[in-house]
């Protein structure tokens, strides 16, 4: 069970320190509070360190060096934290550092927002470098807050080049409108210029997310027919697409098509992750060994893929080895790594160990971590712990339908029908509705979306006719097998 008193004391101490910070009036006072937090082992709490960073960066007593040191201590800086430190450097004597930090933010895969760019632009404006300003402006245009408005502007353009088509496609991909991205690409093939590397990377990403294997294969043919060079980014996108669509052999063919010296960590990650996702656990670990022999340095994503493989294969000892190796290589585990470790332990039934691991993390447990623990509790029938975790999840995400359903299911498994009913009623009172799950089916290159009891498809009548016929046939086969088994059993008596 969760150590409630431990969590309570930690939360109370955190609240006390934050109260002190809110009343702080100088950098010297701040440093005294910070020193006390370090002495009590509380300085690693991201919520506290984030407040310290904000004070040193935005108060009238700004201390750039101190702010940067605090920033570097954050185990998982948020977008807000990155924006804060970029802002500090943008107005400092060294605005070049703001650009460096921004580039580091991009390399770490951190999502920037509409508040990031004003500080970056402010820093770049202090340089007399036209190319830098143009590059940042292009990035803003490519990644700005509204795809609908972008489409309106695109439709009004009298002429559209490959850059405008690619920008629109990439915008839909970043907005998770993958089917629309593919639809735009089809229009581009008819009306627009030939696609370039940027276009195809976005299109292959859309195919990967949709699991649209046939369309992905068509994109591969398009590149060959149009003589598009298979650069490393394109090869990586192809491997990722084939792997995510389950075509592991095709992914390996594309992967092996590159010489060892022509690869980087990204393409190895795509292959290792693809193998792990589809249950080829040992092959994914062997691939990592091959990566090391090839002299390719692993990154944080590599270890995330390896931990995922261990979760699928129930390899607890190997998971601990990779988690420790991550730190030995000088990398700081992120939330995703901690979540993967919880998943490994929970799936393997090491629920007490998973609980202690959560308690000792340098950050508060996220919903995904608790969700993995809840799933393990359900699978291994630790219903006492499942109840505590389920309640914590509802506290964290009171508007998430799955949290109520998860706890209700835990009560139902334990035959606590009254509590299960109360959970459903609490969900209804709050106005939370269960979102229906959906499935995509690709038939002859076309994607079809379905939800339970869906009748909106134009061929729903034929689909249900075939479905009912299949169910009846399965029932007949099952009855026949039962009869054969019974007659065999009787004759043997």
From TrEMBL:
PPR repeats lie at residues 78-112, 161-195, 264-298, 299-333. InterPro entries: E_motif, PPR_At4g14850-like_plant, PPR_rpt, TPR-like_helical_dom_sf. The keyword Isomerase does not apply. PROSITE patterns: PPR. Pfam families: E_motif, PPR, PPR_2. Keywords: Repeat. It comes from the Eukaryota. This is Pentatricopeptide repeat-containing protein. It comes from Ilex paraguariensis. The lineage of its organism: Eukaryota, Viridiplantae, Streptophyta, Embryophyta, Tracheophyta.
């Amino acid at each position: 069970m969760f150590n409630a008193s431990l969590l309570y004391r930690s939360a109370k101490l955190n609240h006390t320190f934050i109260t002190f910070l809110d009343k702080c009036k100088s950098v010297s006072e701040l440093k005294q509070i910070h020193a006390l937090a370090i002495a009590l082992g509380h300085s690693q709490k991201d919520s506290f360190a984030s407040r310290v960073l904000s004070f040193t960066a935005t108060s009238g007593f700004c201390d750039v060096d101190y702010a940067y040191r605090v920033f570097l201590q954050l185990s998982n800086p948020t977008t807000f934290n990155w924006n804060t430190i970029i802002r500090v450097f943008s107005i400092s004597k060294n605005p070049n550092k703001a650009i460096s930090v921004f580039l580091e933010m991009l390399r770490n895969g951190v999502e920037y927002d509409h508040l990031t760019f004003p500080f970056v632009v402010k820093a770049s404006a202090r340089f007399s470098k036209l190319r830098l300003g143009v590059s940042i402006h292009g990035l803003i245009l490519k990644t700005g807050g509204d795809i609908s408005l972008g489409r309106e502007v695109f439709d009004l353009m009298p002429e559209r080049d490959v850059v405008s088509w690619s920008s629109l496609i990439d915008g839909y991909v970043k907005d998770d409108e993958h089917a629309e991205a593919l639809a735009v690409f089809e229009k581009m093939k008819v009306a627009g210029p030939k696609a370039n590397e940027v276009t195809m990377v976005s299109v292959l990403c859309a195919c990967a997310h949709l699991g649209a294997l046939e369309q992905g294969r068509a994109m591969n043919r398009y590149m060959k027919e149009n003589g598009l060079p298979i650069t490393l980014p394109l090869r990586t996108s192809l491997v990722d697409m084939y792997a995510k669509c389950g075509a592991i052999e095709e992914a390996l063919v594309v992967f092996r098509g590159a010489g060892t010296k022509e690869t980087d960590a990204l393409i190895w990650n795509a292959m290792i992750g693809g193998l792990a996702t589809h249950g080829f656990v040992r092959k994914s670990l062997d691939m990592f060994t091959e990566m090391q022999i090839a002299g390719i340095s692993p990154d944080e994503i590599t270890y995330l893929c390896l931990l995922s493989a261990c979760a699928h294969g129930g390899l607890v000892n190997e998971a601990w080895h990779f988690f420790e190796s991550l730190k030995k290589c000088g990398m700081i585990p992120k939330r995703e790594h901690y979540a993967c470790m919880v998943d490994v332990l929970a799936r393997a039934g090491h629920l007490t160990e998973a609980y202690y691991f959560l308690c000792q993390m340098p950050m508060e447990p996220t919903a995904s971590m608790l969700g993995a623990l809840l799933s393990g509790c359900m699978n291994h029938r630790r219903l006492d712990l499942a109840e505590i975790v389920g309640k914590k999840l509802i506290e964290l995400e009171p508007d998430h339908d799955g949290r109520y359903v998860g706890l209700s299911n835990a009560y139902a498994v334990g035959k606590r029908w009254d509590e299960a009913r109360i959970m459903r009623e609490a969900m209804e009172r709050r106005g939370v509705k269960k979102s229906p799950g959906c499935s995509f089916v690709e038939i002859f290159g076309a994607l079809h979306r379905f939800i339970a009891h869906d009748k909106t498809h134009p061929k729903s009548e034929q689909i249900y006719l075939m479905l009912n016929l299949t169910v009846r046939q399965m029932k007949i086969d099952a009855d026949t097998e039962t009869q054969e088994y019974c007659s065999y059993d009787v004759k043997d008596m």
